[in-house]
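Long-time lurker, first post. I've been practising inverse folding by hand and with some scripts of my own, and I keep getting stuck on stretches where the C-alpha cells seem ambiguous. Below is the full C-alpha cell string for one chain I'm working on. Before anyone asks, I'm not after the true native sequence, just a reasonable design that respects the backbone. If someone could post their per-position residues I'd love to compare against what I wrote down in my notebook.
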C-alpha cells in the first residue's frame, strides 16, 4: 500500500521476499511521486523491517538468535520469562539504527503499532514468538530538495545495514533451514 500525506510518502507491504523485488516496487512509487506529486522537500528517509519469528516444534527461540542475542529463558526462582523486551539504538554512517525485540506467548502476528496499518494481519495461534523490528533512518541535516535517485540510493544503503544487522543477530540454522 501507499499512504500519501502532506509531508510524507509511505510505502508498506507484507508481501516481501527479497530486497530486489521490494526495490523495484519502491522505485515505481518514488518515480511516480516525483512525476505526479512533485515533492520539493526531503527531510527524512526511513526503512523498517518487522519480522515475526514463530518457533517450530522441537526448537527454541534461542535456536534462531546468535549467542550475543540469546534470550533469558528463566529469571532466578521466578520461573520462565513471560515477556522480554529490548531496544537498541545506534548511530550509523547513514543515520540511526533502531532495533526492537519483543518476545512472549501471544496470538498477535505483528508489533502493536503496526496493527492500524491498512493491511490485514490475522491473529495467529497463541504461542511463543519473537517480534524483531529493525528501523534505519536518515535525517537530512537541513531540508533538502527531493531527488529520486538520492532517495533510492539512500534506501539501498539503509537496507544494507539492516540486512547485515539481521544476519549478525540470527543463526545460520534460522536463515538457511527455517527461512529459505
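-- Answer (accepted) --
I ran through it position by position. Result:
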Amino acid at each position: 500500500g501507499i499512504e500519501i500525506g502532506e509531508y510524507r510518502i509511505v510505502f508498506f507491504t507484507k508481501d516481501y521476499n527479497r530486497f530486489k523485488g521490494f526495490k523495484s516496487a519502491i522505485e515505481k512509487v518514488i518515480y511516480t511521486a516525483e512525476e505526479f506529486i512533485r515533492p520539493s522537500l526531503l527531510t527524512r528517509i526511513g526503512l523498517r523491517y518487522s519480522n515475526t519469528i514463530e518457533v517450530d516444534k522441537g526448537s527454541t527461540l534461542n535456536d534462531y538468535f546468535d549467542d550475543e542475542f540469546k534470550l533469558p529463558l528463566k529469571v532466578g526462582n521466578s520461573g520462565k520469562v513471560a515477556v522480554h523486551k529490548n531496544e537498541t539504538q545506534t548511530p550509523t554512517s547513514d543515520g540511526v539504527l533502531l532495533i526492537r525485540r519483543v518476545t512472549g506467548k501471544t496470538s498477535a502476528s505483528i508489533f502493536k503499532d503496526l496493527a492500524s496499518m491498512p493491511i490485514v494481519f490475522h491473529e495467529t495461534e497463541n504461542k511463543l514468538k519473537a517480534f524483531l523490528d529493525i528501523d534505519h533512518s536518515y535525517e537530512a541535516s537541513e531540508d533538502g530538495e527531493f531527488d529520486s535517485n538520492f532517495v533510492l540510493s539512500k534506501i539501498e544503503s539503509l537496507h544494507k545495514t539492516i540486512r547485515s544487522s539481521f544476519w549478525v543477530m540470527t543463526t545460520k540454522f534460522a536463515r538457511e533451514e527455517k527461512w529459505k
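A couple of notes from the structure itself: Residues 83 and 104 are 4 Å apart (CA to CA). Helices lie at 19-37, 148-169, 172-178. Happy to go over any region you disagree with.
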